[in-house]
Specification:
Layout: E1 5-9, H1 16-27, E2 31-33, H2 34-43, H3 47-57, H4 64-75, E3 84-87, H5 93-106, E4 112-117, H6 120-134, H7 141-155, H8 157-163, E5 168-172, H9 177-190
Parallel strand pairs: 1-3, 1-4, 2-3, 4-5
Bound molecules: adenosine monophosphate (AMP).
Adenosine monophosphate (AMP) binds near residues 35, 38, 67 and 147.
């Protein structure tokens, strides 16, 4: 399997995080989640965390400036040199362009954009269940709907951005974790 610099795209609740962990183990490249990094910053009450908390709780996007900063810091670490699974970044065209700029400077570009496709009602159900299990402050119904809206407005256009370079591989995301995981590996092998 040759594609190791991977961007995962999918609506909130599509299973990106779960799949990213599995794929990261499979390929032996780090899983990089800006959501995880931001939650860690919130928990540690760093300046970034203090600024990001209310924005995240409302289901909005943290500013490109902050997110690009933390993503660049992580992507320039040694373990990301051979590849990575990006989960939740980029989420805006500005972030995608910044990522391309960074990769141009430090090596080669994205190999594949894996897009997990799901139906919206299935997602809302999934997110409400996860909210109960994990007690995530950004998973109440109002916030979920807001995150969907933001995804449609800001992040969904990235599919076109990567499709223009023939990098998108779509994977249906409504099966079991194993089924989706196998479909992702198959999509990468075909990429
Ligand atoms: P996630 O765990 O990826 O769903 O991210 C949780 C929350 O963190 C999002 O709803 C945003 O508020 C924020 N966040 C994570 N990644 C980004 C990003 N790339 N750009 C802007 N905000 C982000």
């Amino acid at each position: 399997m040759s594609s190791t610099k991977i961007v995962l795209l999918g609506a909130p609740g599509a299973g990106k995080g779960t799949q990213a962990v599995l794929l990261s183990k499979n390929l032996g490249v780090p899983h990089i989640s800006t959501g995880d990094m931001l939650r860690a910053a919130v928990a540690a009450e760093t300046p970034v965390g203090l600024e990001a908390k209310a924005v995240m709780d409302a289901g909005h996007l943290v500013s490109d400036q902050i997110v690009i900063g933390i993503a660049e810091e992580r992507l320039t670490q040694d373990d990301a040199a051979q590849g990575f699974i990006l989960d939740g970044f980029p989420r805006t065209l500005g972030q995608a362009e910044a990522l391309d700029g960074l990769l141009d400077r430090i090596g080669s570009g994205i190999d594949c954009c894996l897009a997990i496709t799901v139906d919206t009602e299935g997602i809302v159900e999934r997110l409400l269940k996860r909210a109960e299990l994990e007690g995530r402050a950004d998973d109440n119904e109002t916030t979920i709907r807001e995150r969907m809206r933001v995804y449609g407005m800001e992040t969904a256009p990235l599919l076109g951005y990567y499709a223009a370079r023939s990098l998108v591989r779509e994977v249906p995301g409504m099966g079991s974790v194993d089924e989706v995981s196998q479909a992702m590996v198959a999509a990468l092998e075909a990429a």
